[in-house]
Amino acid sequence: MLKPQAGATREIANLDGIWRFALDHADDTTPWERALRGSLDVAVPASYNDQFVDPAIRNHVGWVWYQRFVDVPRPWVDGRIVLRFDAATHEGRVYVNDTFVGEHIGGYTPFEFDVTDLVEPGARFRLTVGVNNELTEHTVPPGHIFDLPDGRRKQQYHHDFFNYAGLARSVSLLHVPDLRVADVTVVTSIENTAGVVDVALETTGSADIRLVLRDEDDAVVAEGSGTTARLRVPDANLWRAGAAYLYVLEITVLDPAGGEVADVYTVNVGIRTVEVRGTQFLLNGEPFYFTGFGKHEDTAVRGKGHDDAYLVHDFQLLDWIGANSFRTSHYPYAEEVLDYADRHGIIVIDETSAVGFNLGVAGGMTQRNPPPTFSPETLGEKTQATHAQHLRELIARDKNHPSVVMWCIANEPAGQEDGAREYFAPLTDLARELDPTRPLTYTAWLMANAQNDQIADLFDVVGINRYFGWYIDLADLVSAEQKLRADIEAWIERFQRPVFMMEYGADTLAGLHAVDAAPWSEEYQQAYLDMHHRVFDDYPEFVGEHVWNFADFRTGAGLHRVGGNKKGIFTRDRQPKAAAHTLRARWSGLSGRKPTSDGV
């Protein structure tokens, strides 16, 4: 789905701001037919949970309602009028005045509806949006809902971050031409010193197409025509980690009847290649070593609400600490994040929202005698179909971002269980069909090891999440190091492909110090990281280290989570812990090169 774009042929009316808000009421079955009850207002974009002081709102399970009036610009008399939602977590239903327009399931990808026949230029309409946060065994991510004796409903989920919900990303009203670009796919390659840009696009009708590729000085470097074309750029400037170079592809749609310009759409193009060869990950044909974090879209009050100021500041911190990459754990991030990564040369591993696919884990705690994860009664064909749709929408949205170098299919699934292979094999086949240019990965949880794992060979890169020294061998880093080495060596020996530490970390309370480096102290976090890095540097097959987590984040209630997950290298308000300086000393100057045990 194309990102909205304002230009000569397209216009955007941003609908962010203050909306009316109400919880769903059993005695009001058609809230979209009138003004919402009560006097609550809510900010968009932002999760609704922490904007209010009422715990009944914060912990609400079910539908909530957003509403505002929208004025359609009078000049929008030709073309089509489209309502666009960058996300509604986890399910959205849209009404224009009294009319149901459509719905979308999936909390982190965009959706839109053509409302041309329902609204009138120069007039006002009532826009009502229902958003549902319920997670069941058939949703992605999954969960369970329990009805309590007092009439309340309780949501249980198996992922270790708070189930923020609402309209956390922008809403807009779009004006687009009838004849327009409907989709674009850009694939780049390198031939000697030349860059090759293959373009395939779709339009809403028969049209003549003109393609122009410009460099950063606005000079034309290649031209083409038609819905498929190959553009060749001599002596191309490649897109690299830490040194982004973006060309601009300008697509002009001409009406074949009179030759007039019907639409103009532009796409940023970074010429680069990614490849897994043997046990190496290659960027532009050269070995690349990932340094960085698993992150979260998580800030105080906003929850998962996108915020441009936090976006800029977080990337400044990534640059300061020397990180070259991050994973969008555990869901697709706002597309503004990927645009920013494109411009600033930060590598992204793009992940679906398939987290919690492990019924032996609930919020980080191992359960006894859990039910099988993959079965008709649990995560079966219906969940798999939903997962596939999430994958389609993720790749359709993010396929043209040069910063995205790998798709992550799932986080910590029960890959050691029977049924896992039958579940994931069709999904990896689908991902390769949708995008044959990018490698695939997933993250193996602590109890899935090289001996019992049933799915790692389906992927190009073996991603592992390991917490030796925290959940196992707490405060015994000597034993933790022994287990870590044995674990890494086993993955390398069995699968003979790149191994990537997608998560490793220790909860740390900022300001807590201990001369004996006791757990939860800043000194323990530093010692924990030092041990891991000493191990990583001994294995040439090891291609990356992503610390869990970039910053402290909010979780659900739990005895082991006091004010949320404290594994951040930065606090939730982005202040560095001592470990930030440890990482900065290690990562600064690496530029994608792998450190070795002799320090070279």
UniProtKB/TrEMBL annotation:
E.C. number(s) listed in UniProt: 3.2.1.31
Q: Where is the Glycoside hydrolase family 2 catalytic domain?
A: 274-589
State the InterPro entries in the record: Beta-gal/glucu_dom_sf (IPR036156), Galactose-bd-like_sf (IPR008979), GH (IPR017853), Glyco_hydro_2 (IPR006101), Glyco_hydro_2_cat (IPR006103), Glyco_hydro_2_CS (IPR023230), Glyco_hydro_2_N (IPR006104), Ig-like_fold (IPR013783)
Query: GO biological process: what's one of them?
Result: glucuronoside catabolic process
Q: Where are the transmembrane segments?
A: none
Q: What UniProt keywords are attached to this protein's entry?
A: Glycosidase, Hydrolase
Cite the NCBIfam families for this sequence: PRK10150.1
Q: What is this protein called?
A: Beta-glucuronidase
Name the gene that codes for it. Answer: uidA
